Design the sequence.
């Protein structure tokens, strides 16, 4: 394989051309029917988790194993040294190792580095700098794969796109509802932001429904609108928990924190509690187009974000959606490493 | 291979016919002399540990690796999300993910799921429902292997049976002493319950020795008695720490909590402390039949449960007993997955 | 392969003849150009980490994977049982398992055991007994590899020697400066002790620079002096942070605790704080021989132990030095297991 994806970092899906995203999806779909034989023999990935994971851990580790390679899972602050990301830091505090060493050192044994670093949720501006991820990208001589940062979860977004392909063939022009849902805790925006951008870029007719106060950041909305315009899709925003379900052809639910209240979540609480009713129910799902599937990135809090009846009903695709993490991750790894994807 | 074990869960040894247990033991013994070449190439197991492990982790992980497969080790509550098991739960507490999603999602990447979930030790009735294990079994489309639950440790029991075969050839009619031993903490009953049932079902002449107050549950004793009757063995219970050693042909020591005092361990303490003398000593071992082996599932507290002189003496088989975990686990995995066991 | 390294423990580099160390280095260098194909197929290592790790974990785990084998990573006290090391202990405390069982049990599934056990830093005499490492070595029937103990870090020392070979070809007669550096916490002596002994034994002209009060133990210094005498090198000690850089051909920086103040680190603090100026700066590096490389075992605290300008400058070899951990570990594992090193 000799192509434009080899050797690149995979930090956000919007860093890649639509044609490149299509290539990744084609490869993922191809891997579901024909697996190359151990194309990553002798190769390794370092997976650096600063936060918990089930799907990403299992799918990435199994992706490496099925391809004949190996994944080393490291947890800085627990089994590995706490990391410093800031340039020029005088390291007399808790962090014992700088990413300026950690990244190139891991690259001496591994061919790729995955990084999961959730936002701290104190300052949005600080989180939006994605210091840990960006430091790995700056100092690693091998491809860095974002396993979820403050702003992006591109492996999830790629699996979401593969799911939409499986549902619709071509998702272009289909009505995609991304609805906020109540959750007891303020959550990061990486997944809804990535899903919104991906759906807009895929030419879908996107509705973002969320309570007043739970706006996504202005620059995210502007980028989404630009993607919708470029792709022939469209984007609208609603502040109603019910009506946007009308005619939706796919429903994607997710909770997120209000960026406006970042770091002041006690102040956000009344707003959040007032929106307790934003839950995906059978009644709401009855308003959609016939058989519109229900998507969620998981983990999901049952009967808080979405009712059992929806999750356990025939329209939930959350499990195959999660299952798409494996072929999409394999496609990303093979493409970045330039391995095993003969076409 | 085309047989009755393929695709089944492995939750308790008593779920399997004696002939099926024999098949597993035959296969385990066979794997000790001839290993198939990478029969699990491209296949994976998710090992979900809610509690610590040394033998189970090492033997299961190495079993998968030696067979050409891979094990993903997950620790919900630490590196993975805290799990909810109860149907209908409104998930607004600490658990972020329901087993109704976790199990089928893991099954999208893994061919088998191992689960270790110790009892909470507050309510025996609650623990006996084995909610976590049973939820995985209910919601996983791939085989679930019990890596120790509240009531059962079938991988250990299978290794115990292989050990008894190695010692006796045919253990039928041999005198098996299962003796309670002092331990500073109240421990689960999974291992002694599983060992008792396995020995009774194997047709051994079983003596259960334990202090008054440390009865095993009535239904366990009834099942053990039925197994003994069906197999031509027998079962008796003694409340003496010395005399049951007389003529024993194998001694299996284990401590366990008094189910009657479950959740009230401060009340159990006087009973427990009064039984401090229940320790396996050389003096006691001198009463057995010549060279009767000493068994324990490990880990074991030296000089509390059993004296150094016994563990370090020639009659201890605790290390080869633990070593039997590898071939028995390989036999279970291969049998459930229908792989690599030509006969 | 049929040689004198097969089956041995790898606890300290000084346990091996200089010719044996050379064999390991030759094999490591050879592995950097030609890798055997899966010489460890079906074989496993248990890596027991009582302390955090990045380089050792990644390089050992990848070494096993690249050679076709597998590493099981265990963390006693977290995912595995807390271990007891002392002979004759009455185990009624926190430790649930004795190394007398853990070591031989791991050897039933694994072909090699790695152990990382840092000093407790309360009593130097206690730490110097290296109870955990020595218990594994005493009770394991398979080779034990020290992944850093109180006194030794032989895998690091071997990588250091490979680095010196790469820099100098033959390091004999070259001026090696081992300089203490300020660090906010009292650190173990394993790395500086191992580096000192290795450099002295390699026939280098060694200067140890450290503040008064931060002497290395007398027996270490005596052994280093003997090694220097035997190898045709020499050893001197200086208490100046500047002048020893004059003419140095390689600078190795490391912080360590004062053994004299072990367990009384509040008393050591004034001494330590008075030595805050012992930091590797560009000004100091300007005094060395031209282009003298800068070495450190990592992790390193930037702008505390050494300035950014040095680490980010062209003379820092800390990343390739860490990269040498992979081939040296592969050489050790293959040599101890007698696998895959045709010559």
Sequence:
């Amino acid at each position: 394989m000799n192509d434009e994806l080899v050797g690149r970092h995979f930090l956000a899906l919007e860093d890649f051309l639509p044609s490149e995203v299509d290539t990744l999806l084609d490869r993922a779909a191809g891997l579901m029917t024909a697996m190359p034989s151990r194309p990553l023999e002798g190769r390794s990935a370092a997976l650096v988790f600063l936060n918990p994971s089930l799907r990403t851990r299992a799918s990435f580790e199994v992706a490496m194993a099925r391809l004949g390679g190996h994944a080393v899972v490291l947890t800085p602050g627990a089994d590995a040294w706490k990391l410093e990301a800031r340039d020029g830091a005088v390291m007399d505090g808790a962090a014992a190792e700088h990413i300026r060493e950690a990244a190139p050192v891991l690259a001496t044994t591994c061919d790729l580095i995955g990084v999961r670093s959730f936002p701290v949720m104190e300052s949005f501006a600080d989180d939006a700098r994605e210091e840990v991820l960006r430091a790995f990208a700056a100092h690693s001589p091998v491809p860095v794969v974002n396993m979820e940062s403050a702003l992006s979860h591109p492996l999830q977004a790629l699996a979401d796109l593969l799911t939409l392909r499986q549902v619709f063939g071509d998702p272009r022009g289909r009505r995609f509802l991304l609805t906020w849902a109540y959750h007891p805790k303020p959550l990061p925006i990486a997944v809804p932001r990535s899903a919104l951008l991906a759906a807009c870029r895929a030419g879908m007719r996107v509705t973002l429904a969320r309570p007043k106060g739970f706006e996504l950041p202005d620059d995210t909305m502007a980028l989404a609108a630009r993607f919708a315009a470029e792709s022939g899709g469209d984007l609208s925003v609603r502040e109603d928990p019910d009506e946007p379900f009308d005619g939706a052809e796919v429903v994607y639910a997710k909770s997120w924190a209000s960026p406006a209240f970042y770091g002041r979540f006690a102040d956000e609480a009344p707003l959040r509690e007032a929106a307790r009713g934003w839950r995906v129910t059978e009644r709401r799902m009855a308003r959609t187009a016939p058989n519109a599937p229900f998507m969620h990135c998981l983990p999901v809090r049952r009967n808080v974000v979405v009712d059992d009846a929806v999750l356990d009903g025939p329209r939930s695709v959350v499990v195959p959606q999660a299952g798409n993490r494996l072929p999409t991750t394999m496609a990303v790894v093979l493409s970045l490493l330039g391995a095993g994807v003969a076409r």
About this structure: Residues 154-168 of chain C form the longest helix (15 residues). Chain C touches chain A through 34 residues (CB under 8 Å). Chain C has two domains: 13-152+325-337, 156-322. The mean pLDDT of chain C is 96.
